[in-house]
Write a structure and sequence with these properties.
By secondary structure, the chain is of the alpha/beta class. The protein has two domains: 12-184 and 225-251, 3-Layer(aba) Sandwich (Rossmann fold), CATH 3.40.50.720; 185-223. The chain has helices at residues 21-32, 44-54, 66-80, 103-131, 151-171, 189-201, 207-214, 226-236, 263-267; strands at 12-16, 36-41, 57-60, 85-88, 134-138, 177-183, 248-251. The relative contact order is 0.14.
């Protein structure tokens, strides 16, 4: 037995942070199945490249700004007459410890990692209620745990899970489903830059060695490809997840199941 909306062909999907990495892969996945894809972000050039590659639409907008986000939604509705799925993927900033984070850096981290999703969701809700649509929030493993010296990023990604649950609680009765995905390491341009910095600091010879080092204690022993995360987003943005809302799916190669205090035993060969 099928469920309404299992297929994504003909659906209108808006992806924030759609110019690179996971966002670009999400756009490619939905477009490959016949969806009308709108990629949203602040940088025109990468958006245009993705839109051209997938036959989609590029909208330059700051998802954290109310007026800019509202205009992006207006463009979507003017062109397609509806909005079925919002993928709140924009993020970044916040890579310092609390004592090293000034007010401007703190605000930038919250704007990038939290306010983008909040503002786009708020401006999209009327359209999503009309279509009984979905919001897929891209958080992070940093939304469940804390890494070193990433205070703003960690707080923002944790807060995205609260936003997901609040939206799901308030708008489920109106037909809108809201779920989140928490990826671990994914081979994106942002992660590549972190690996290059780590490789230099740790005196490793390549980016590949850096990825191998940071995933050495992960059960699957490797980072994800953006397309692997995109497949989960596609599932959450279709009728195949029709009885899921307020859920948080972790896609981290098993990193979250590792009992950290026992790693010493494994490293000792016991």
């Amino acid at each position: 037995m099928g469920f309404a909306g299992e297929e994504v062909e003909g659906r209108v999907v808006a992806v924030t942070g759609g110019g690179t990495g996971i966002g670009a892969a999400v756009a490619e996945r939905f477009a490959a199945e016949g969806a009308h894809v709108v990629v949203i972000g602040r940088r025109k050039e990468p958006l245009d490249r993705v839109a051209e590659a997938v036959g989609g639409t590029a909208v330059v907008a700051d998802a954290a700004d109310r007026a800019s986000a509202a205009e992006a939604v207006r463009v979507v509705l003017d062109r397609f007459g509806r909005l079925d799925v919002l993928v709140a993927n924009a993020g970044g900033h916040g890579f310092s410890a609390v004592a090293d984070t000034d007010d401007d850096a703190w605000q930038a981290a919250l704007n990038a990692n939290l306010t983008t999703a909040f503002t786009m969701a708020r401006e999209s809700l009327a359209a999503l209620i009309e279509t009984k649509g979905q919001i897929v929030v891209v958080s992070s493993l940093a939304g469940l745990f804390a890494g070193p010296s990433v205070a703003g990023y960690t707080v923002g990604k944790h807060a995205l899970i609260g936003l997901t649950r609040s939206l799901a609680r308030d708008y489920g009765r109106r037909g809108v489903r809201v779920n989140a995905v928490c990826p671990g390491w994914v081979q994106t341009p942002m992660a590549d830059a972190e690996m290059d910095e780590f490789a230099s600091h740790a005196q490793l010879s390549s980016r590949g060695e850096a990825y191998a080092a940071v995933t050495g204690d992960v059960p699957l022993g490797r980072p994800a490809l953006p397309a692997e995360i995109a497949s989960i987003v596609r599932f959450l943005g279709s009728g195949e997840s029709s009885y899921m809302t307020g859920s948080v799916l972790v896609a981290d190669g098993g990193a979250h199941i590792v009992d950290v205090p026992t790693l010493a035993f494994e490293h000792a060969g016991m």
